[in-house]
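We emphasize that the prediction below concerns an isolated chain of 314 residues; any contacts that depend on oligomerization or on bound cofactors are therefore not represented. The input was used exactly as deposited, without trimming of termini.
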Amino acid sequence: MPLFLLKRILSTVPVMLIVAVLVFMLLRLTPGDPAAIIAGDAASPENIARIRASFGLDKSLLVQFGIWFGNLLTGNLGESYYFKKTVVELIVQRIEPTLALSLLTILIAVVVAVPLGVLAAWRMGGLLDRALMGFSVLGFSIPVFVLAYILIYLVSLKLDWLPVQGYVRIGEGSFWDFLRHLILPSVTLSVIYIALIARVTRAAVSEVLAEDYIRTARAKGLPESKVLWRHAFANAAVPIVTVIGIGIALLIGGVVVTESVYGIPGLGRLTVDAVLARDFPTIQGVILLFSFVYVLINLLVDLSYVLFDPRIRY
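Result of the prediction step, given as a token string:
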């Protein structure tokens, strides 16, 4: 296990290096000049050239990459062109809303999807199973932003139960104010993950329920609840944990859209603003952070296999 952990940690280094190079090059090769955007439409060529020089954009790509990568090795992600703050400071300011939204979303998804998937596998072909399959198709089909606007119209505008937009930071108001601004975005974002996790759970548990040791457990007179959760679900945990880990990683894309629709000042909204402003340092910093989180989640999922299935040995 220690050797496997060391190998996996070391394997993240070339992955992050490749991500850094690709992000840097793709941003520089795409159309658009940050200096022209900052200067405005009425700016003179001399003013644009001065701004480019102040940001170091007049240097060659190799020199720009060398400067940026050298700063990156010291933990310096650079300074934002648009927000006039360091990228690290921007990330620290914006990470709380994104973290809160992601945690509540995955909590709702797991708490709802796993029991639904287990019960659907237990009563395969029944009403719950057919309802779950229909919900899964619907959840995969509706885009996040469409569902967001539907829920805003019904829950916020028509019923006036929850606020339309905004975010209350922890400590700035009551816990209920903090929670009520997150419920609607989290429910919106969790629908697709409920569909994904529930379907995988159903498939994994139904496969285990067909095994001989499940029939043996039932023949011994064990309660059905114990057979279902202690034997079937426990032995189907590996694919379920895998898809939960994938779901957490895929939250990155959903967070960007959800935060934009609900006006949440998180990393997703920061990414959109930075892309529109061609703010290279901010985009690079946020993407590197998302990439690191993705790699870290994959590592934790791999390590969890040993806990759920003692037969696995690295």
